[in-house]
Amino acid sequence: MKHPGIKSSLILSIIFIISVTIASGEVRLPRLVSDGMVLQRETPVRIWGWANPGEKVTIGFNKQTFETEASNKGEWQIMLPAQKAGGPYEMKISASNQISLKNILFGEVWLCSGQSNMELPMRRVAVIYPDEIASSKNPFIRQFVVPVRWNYNKAMDDISNGEWKEANPENVLQFSAAGYFFARSLYEKYKIPVGIILCAAGGSAAESWLSEKTLMKFPEQYKIAKQLADSTYLKNLISLETKASGEWFNQLGKSDLGRKEIPWFAPQLDDSNWSTLQIPSTFNEAGISLKNGAVWFRKEINLPENCDGKTALLEMGRIVDSDSAFINGQFVGNITYQYPPRRYQIAPGILKAGKNIITVRVVSQSSAGEFVKDKPYQLTVEGKTFDIKGSWKYQIGATMPPCPPLTYFPNRPLGLYNAMLHPMINYTINGVIWYQGETNAERPNDYSNVLTALINEWRTLWKKKDLPFLCVQLPNFQETKPEPTESNWAILRNEQLKILSVPNTSLIVTLDLGEWNDIHPLRKKEVGERLALAAENKVYGEKNVLCSGPVYQKMKKDGNRIVLSFTHCGSGLLSKNGELKEFAIAGADKKYVWAKAKIEGNNVVVWNENVPTPVSVRYAWADNPKGANLYNKEGLPASPFCTLK
Parallel, antiparallel, or unpaired: how do β-strands 312-316 and 354-364 relate? Predict the structure, then answer.
């Protein structure tokens, strides 16, 4: 006897197949061309999509009608004539079906690309910009987020999802922080709609955004891309790595003594025989012998009566690598990797008057467990803050071998170009803002060539030979060094400086906006505003707007002194907060020592009495050149540099 559900299932399957067949012949639009989109003003813009081969496609827009036929591949496109800024408009696209698009604006369209510091959302910086978020409602500032995907086999025609969102206190939390402040600055000045397309991926390398053809100029990266294009190799790699990582975490869970019988987050646990340490600190500084595995930390804190049952915020700084937090035995939050701040909201009813137990389970995978210093470690209850730094108890739950690594595909070459960038190239943009380089700092020496190739390729893709490209230079990061030293981040910044030789580019210096202990510094407002200054100068013809700090131009030897001259001095050079710092000088041996420096007009004179015949000067040449203080009087910092080519 046949199963009674087979017939109905078969009918449903046939209906589904028919519906898919019909749908595949209907006119279809790319994700970017959708409700709420911002189109570039004052230039023809392309509207494109797919339909049945040979099918007639009609666009009705602004009392005009435009027609075309789909190609034998089912592709079609129509160029709309240039429009002035404004809206909202509606658009109807008709073939065998009809699509209606609403709330369309014409204005300025900017591509925001790079890695995590471009991706970093307003949500992450809300702690320092609450007023900006509260006042963010503006239907003329919009963002489209391209989802992070990768593909090594072919360039995709469309992205998987996404929609245009207007700025308001809810939506803006997902906006790129740098991108939002850039867009807001432009809107405030020109009162023209601004659309930003966020096409960025945390941890991505510059080569991730290059096509296969351009990657051929960089043989090592091209070789990696070709290897990943082998679908069998890629499938096996993912399978093996996922299995190995899963087994590691599974074994960790089984081995962790803190998860046996009485769990170590239980308030009643007797921890009197646990060791003590000071938080914040690294595991190594605290004397914890464990390299990889799980460590449990507990702290008792006494709260007054008025805290009983109240909501609260637990801040645990940053933790390497991952953590789970508990209060009085209740789970309150977790973060699975090292970079985000630990800010855990405490629900009502968890806190008590009197004794409370905070427990944090930390998993170290990278042999570098750490509670990062100079971050907030505190509990805030109704505006009152309780410091939880200092003495904590700890116990090792499980010791493990190193965790098998997982390939991080967004930082591999080609993948993001194919899956994220290529689907957008028909969409007209006015320019690019680019914040990337942290990943390439591991191999910085060829970065200017890679970035120049990227700029040239993108200009070709968008058929705009002078497409504006505004780049953010890496900020200060890592611990300071007492003496002049070599630095990959300094080399990378110098490589970024070289792109100024490419026409219609600009470089935004951010040495004063970083955080030594966080690769994702929060001060994105200044980043966006400095990018906007560059756009005003380079794109909108505001030649009187200074958009750069001093840039080293040339040097001249004068006895035991070297005289440096600069461009972009504005109304004059400035030593901010005292005497000039972070200048180093070297003789023929190229051994750099700290130097004295002073401003003379638009020059800086550098010397050290112990270097009688100097040949080279470096400025701010370090991962974190804290104290670098050469500016112009307009308040923009000088770029780091080395006088040796």
Answer: unpaired
pLDDT for 14 beyond 60: no
Q: What is the mean pLDDT of the chain?
A: 95
CB-CB neighbours of 444 under 10 Å: 20
- From the centroid of its chain, how far is CA 280? 26
pLDDT of 32 strictly over 70 = yes
Instruction: Please choose, from the candidates 115, 140, 398, 363, the residue with its C-alpha nearest in 3D space to the C-alpha of residue 256.
Output: 398
Total Cβ atoms within 10 A of residue 351: 22
Give the dihedral sign, CA 276/281/286/290: positive
The pLDDT of 469-490, averaged and rounded, is: 97
3-state secondary structure 580-644: CCCEEEECCCCCCEECEEEEECCEEEEECCCCCCCCEEEECCCCCCCCCCEEECCCCECCCEECC
- Structure confidence at residue 645 as a pLDDT band (50, 70, 90): confident
- Please state the φ and ψ torsions of residue 27, each to the nearest 5 degrees: -65, 135
Question: Which pLDDT value is given to residue 11?
Answer: 35
Copy the structure tokens of residue 26.
Answer: 């209907």
Q: What is the 3-class SS of 20-61, one letter each residue?
A: HHHHHHCCECCCCCCCCCEEECCCCEEEEEECCCCCEEEEEE
- Supply the DSSP symbol for 165: E
Rounded Cα–Cα distance for residues 62 and 88 (Å): 11
Q: Are strands 616-619 and 630-632 parallel, antiparallel or unpaired?
A: unpaired
Stretch 83-88: mean pLDDT:
98
> In whole angstroms, what is the distance from residue 550 CA to residue 535 CA?
18
Please give the DSSP secondary-structure letter assigned to residue 176. B
**Rounded Cα distance, 277 and 297, in Å:** 9
pTM of the shown model = 0.94
623: tokens are 């991962």
Rg (CA), the chain: 28
Mean pLDDT, range 156-176, rounded to an integer: 97
